[in-house]
């Protein structure tokens, strides 16, 4: 099959990104949402498509060990303000996130879908060892993702 034969709504993986950190002082690390932002930026660079970050229709985040109410909104940080934010609860098969993304694109409900997740447990552990607390960005208690996958 050539590029000319691909159906217009065929989902395509554009880029993959990763962000990690290891350090001794907790103050040298960043929180989980910042790691997700960095991974998203790396994925956009990997795919040579940084402009897509302004056209995200949905961002799907795998729930982690953090207290964010709507991590997708924090990750986008004002970009793509029309984007639906989805939070997949712990226990949801991770394949479900990717299935949701490709089905939304194939059905025409979205053109750009982001799937991400992140943890900063090393940071909180380093802070705990130092007798400190690793703070996280807070959101209003009435903030919630558009969709929650349980």
Care to describe what's here?
The chain contains 4 helices and 4 strands; from the N terminus they run αβαβαβαβ. A 4-stranded parallel beta sheet has the order 3-1-2-4, with helices on both faces. It is globular and about 60 Å long. With 150 residues, it is of the alpha/beta class. β1 (58-62), α2 (71-76) and β2 form a beta-alpha-beta unit. It has helices spanning 32-46, 71-76, 94-106, 121-129, and strands at residues 58-62, 84-88, 113-116, 147-149. The model has no long low-confidence stretch (mean pLDDT 94).
The SSE order reads: HEHEHEHE
Rg, Å, rounded? 17 Å
Number of helices: 4
Task: Name the helicity range.
Answer: 25-40%
Structural class: alpha/beta
- Unreliably modeled segments: none
Observed structural traits:
single chain; 150 residues; alpha/beta; four-stranded parallel sheet
